[in-house]
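Readers of this paper often ask what the protein records in our data store actually look like. An entry from our holdings is shown next, in its original layout:
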Amino acid sequence: MEFLAELSSWEIYAIVCGLFGGLGILFGVIARKRVAIPLSVLPLLGVAMTTPVTEQFVIPQLANRYPVVFANKDLPKKIDQQTTLKKIDLTDSIYSYFYDLDLDDDWFDAPLVKSAQLSDLCNSLLPKFVSGEASLANYIYQLKGKDYSFSVDSSDCL
């Protein structure tokens, strides 16, 4: 099912629509022999169910089951004028966030950035730490070919 999470939104909608439309045709053929229902009504009902089923069930399930794949679909993403989130990775319960920085100078203080953002980072990471989904989060910033990084774990959020 991971391949579904990699698809664009319209492709996910198209697959769900095709499945529900096909089921509508199948049920229409079966019901035609027993009940006087026009064959075209059930496929239309199936297609009409596509949007609510996709938005309320399919996409949330994919986002919960494959959060990194789903999150990377929208990347790269400009966070502010100087920061672009390039990629998110999850390996062995360790999230890694990769950023590009576009700064005029080549000085970056990772510990200062960590302390300034720690409260917001902990708000988003603490549920992942508590659930066991994550044990550590690495933030890697690239500035003019040089990497700067810091890590956050559950002890930082106490």
About this structure: Strands lie at 77-78, 83-91, 94-101, 136-143, 146-153. The chain has a mean pLDDT of 87. The first helix runs from residue 2 to 6.
